[in-house]
Description:
The protein has 13 helices and 13 strands. With 370 residues, the protein is α/β, with parallel strands linked by helices.
Amino acid sequence: MPAPRSTVRRGLAAVAALPLLALAATACGYGSQAKDDEAKANVSVGGKKLSSDTVKIGYFPNLTHATALVGVQEGTIQKELGGTRVESTTFNAGPSEIEALNAGSIDIGFIGPSPSINGYSRSQGKGLRIISGSASGGVKLVVNPDRIKTLDDLKGKKIATPQVGNTQDVAFLNWISEKGWKVDAQSGKGDISVVRSDNKVTPDAYRSGDLDGAWVPEPTASKLVSEGAKVLLDEKDLWPDKKFVITNIIVSQKFLDEHPDVVEAVLKGSVATNKWINANPEKAKASANRALENLSGKPLPQEILDPAWESIEITDDPLAQTLKTQAGHSVKSGLLKEPNLQGIYDLGPLNKILKAEGLPEVADAGLGVK
């Protein structure tokens, strides 16, 4: 039986659609360093260090990464780490975050299923493990209503996704395939032009007329709606029970082997954060918006914040069966050869924490470590 999932109401806000501050880049240049000095991410006073001085956590400035946004902002994750310091970095999409994980620029990441699958497959099962879920839903196809009235009108149009091979890109390519249309997965050229566009610049491209729509996570979708776009499809409507994993928590296998105590502490912080979000949705929404303001210099307006939050569910459950389905989508799209995903999940530490909290344990769909 899956762990309880709380529907995140009225929206955290992600700055994906807003210009980022000139924040310091990580050593390898994969993302932007978060302003954790304002986000309560300081080392706990008098806290005892675990086996590592720091833990480097990556996530997106998207509502679908609410656990990370709130957990860092409120210090819930830091509290569990004691004297081990959180260093956070933000990314636009999963492939670049996987590069950072492989390079050692981050240790733990909040990330979508498709990059997780790709990273695991390309490292032949040695690069990472999925250790928890984080969110379901929060992805929409939004379009210019003057140019597109129905789903069939998408043919011949230019539709954005965040990055080639990212979770929304794979989902859109799969949807196109199921329509019987053809698109080259790498170039994005075909019956629909799939334009890979950074979430923070997609609204500008839409406003200028360079795009006819976008298949994107929140709050980029709601930002586009505020610019006059219309929601043509909510991806959750394509899934059984309207649930699909949009954000996992992954860890470098090397870091997990060397610092299991740190990984367990981050998981405790994640579970505690999700519980707090569920119990305090209004406070959580405000916290997330402050976190996004720290990243962008500007909070999201209420008309974007509220509808964005409505479509997200926060969950400890990785919804592993839906990841298996998404792996099939990557294969069908031509972005991935049939992967061997045995061992991609290590849910032992999470289930230990859930059991101690009196919560139901979660399943790995037969893809756990042996």
